[in-house]
UniProtKB/TrEMBL annotation:
Signal peptide: none
Source taxonomy: Bacteria, Pseudomonadati, Bacteroidota, Cytophagia, Cytophagales
The entry's keywords: Histidine metabolism, Hydrolase, Iron, Metal-binding, Zinc
Gene Ontology molecular function, alphabetical: imidazolonepropionase activity; metal ion binding
The protein, known as: Imidazolonepropionase
Enzyme class: hydrolase
EC number: 3.5.2.7
Domain Amidohydrolase-related: 76-414
Pfam families (alphabetical): Amidohydro_1
Annotated source species: Pontibacter ramchanderi
Pathway membership, UniProt: Amino-acid degradation
């Protein structure tokens, strides 16, 4: 009997945090969390059919088509985690950059001297498709085992039509066979490649040559750009994003990491999310709020660069929808541990447990414009994770060291 065609009853769980019926933007008090007790989840064809009292669900489970995933210790169930911003398709290490940074050079100085992102570009170009697939797959294995069931992955270390396509193909290949669901994003506008002297001409080439192929081959439906002094200017970014939108892509932006400006472009371009935002203030919050842009903060990059976190508390108080992602990349954020980073950010920024959890589940889904996950409720994808505890407050209290013991993707235990 194939599991996909069978009802699966999972439980009982001591607590289920559904993450349902929470405000889409702004602060969330822990009292607003829906915490259900002694709960079972009924799954059919990868989707949640019912969430309710375990004993009642058991009484109705008389059909021979039922499979039971009996949970026999105290466990807390959550929706699978969503990492809404990563660069995990890359080859090579940037340990040398790290050594230079801790010895006093800044991220931007290293970038200007040809290190940084361009170093990863060289190494990723040298890697074959098969090698990239293998590297990406290993990172996906780790993410999935730590409870991440959906993960955005950017290109951006190719920076030629051919090499960007190679990266996106590697992402597509892994996505076909891996239980971790990948959401690809074309970040050909990560940096001006060394072969080009004019960034505008490079972006034009991306628009006329690469993006149509990305669309045609179904390799991604999201486009990202890094707006910063060492990358692309506000003006050229706005032009580029308008062209990408015209081609039918959703927009996201690397904004306000070191200097402001990017979030304004995100708002003007109608981006789904603006990510980083370490340098953002009240003015930027207002622009993003009015344009309905999700603010995705990346604590891993702050940890890697030894700089302050994005002001997540003030963003929430300013009425924004805040998502939290790892930015897992070889340069500024090689750790890639979403739970741990969310816990550290929450402690420093004084986020409630509800706000932090929402940032890596339901609000992260919003950052990716996904409406079928991030919540444990009827009709949602059955992406679920269970922690070995009877109290959800233990999860961030243990600073990311308490990991999920069981993970289900579309109702299948992985
Ligand atoms: O999100 N800021 C630009 N891009 C990445 C870093 C990528 C890298 O350093 O390789 C980021 O931090
Ligand atoms: Fe990034």
């Amino acid at each position: 009997m194939k599991e996909e065609n069978t009802h699966i009853l999972i439980g009982p769980f001591s607590q289920v945090l559904t993450m349902a019926e929470l405000p889409e933007t702004g602060p969330i008090a822990d009292e607003q969390l829906q915490v259900l007790e002694n709960v079972g989840v009924l799954v059919y064809e990868g989707r949640i059919m019912q969430v309710g009292n375990y004993d009642k669900l058991l009484q109705h489970a008389t059909d021979s088509n039922y499979i039971f995933h009996k949970i026999d210790q105290p466990m807390v169930l959550l929706p699978g985690l969503i990492d809404a911003h990563t660069h995990i398709c890359f080859a090579g290490s940037r340990a040398n950059d790290y050594a230079m940074r801790v010895a006093g050079k800044s991220y931007l100085e290293i970038a200007r001297s040809g290190g940084g992102i361009l170093d990863s570009v060289r190494k990723t170009r040298e890697a074959t498709l098969v090698e990239l697939v293998d590297l990406l797959k290993k990172r996906c294995d780790r993410h999935l085992s730590e409870g991440v069931t959906t993960c955005e992955v950017k290109s951006g270390y190719g920076l030629t039509t051919e090499e960007e396509l190679k990266m996106l193909e590697a992402i597509q290949l892994v996505n076909k066979h891996h239980a971790l669901e990948l959401i690809p994003t074309c970040l050909a506008a990560h940096m001006r490649p060394p072969e080009h002297t004019d960034s505008r001409l490079y972006l034009q080439e991306v628009v006329t040559q690469l993006l149509p192929q990305v669309k045609e081959q179904g390799l991604a439906n999201r486009v990202d750009i890094f707006i910063e002094e060492t990358a692309f200017s506000e003006e050229e970014s706005l032009e580029y994003l308008a062209a990408a939108k015209e081609l039918g892509f959703e927009i996201t932006v690397h904004a306000d990491q070191f200097s402001t400006g990017g979030s304004r472009i995100a708002a003007e371009a109608g981006a789904v999310s603006a990510d980083h935002l370490e340098a953002s203030g009240e003015e930027e919050f207002a622009l993003m709020r009015e344009a309905g842009v999700v603010a995705t903060v990346l604590p891993g990059a702050s940890l890697g660069l030894g700089m302050h976190y994005a002001p997540a508390r003030r963003m929430l108080d300013g009425g924004l929808c805040v998502a939290i992602a790892t930015d897992w990349n070889p340069g500024s954020a090689p750790m890639g541990d979403l739970l741990l980073q969310a816990a550290l950010l929450g402690a420093s920024e004084k986020l409630t447990i509800a706000e932090t959890l929402a940032g890596i589940t339901v609000r992260a889904a919003k950052a990716l414009n996904l409406t079928d996950r991030g919540i444990v409720a009827k009709g949602m994808q059955a992406d679920l994770i269970a922690f070995p505890t009877d109290n959800y407050k233990e999860i961030f209290y243990q600073q990311g060291k308490l990991k999920p013991m069981q993970v289900w993707k579309r109702g299948r235990e992985v």
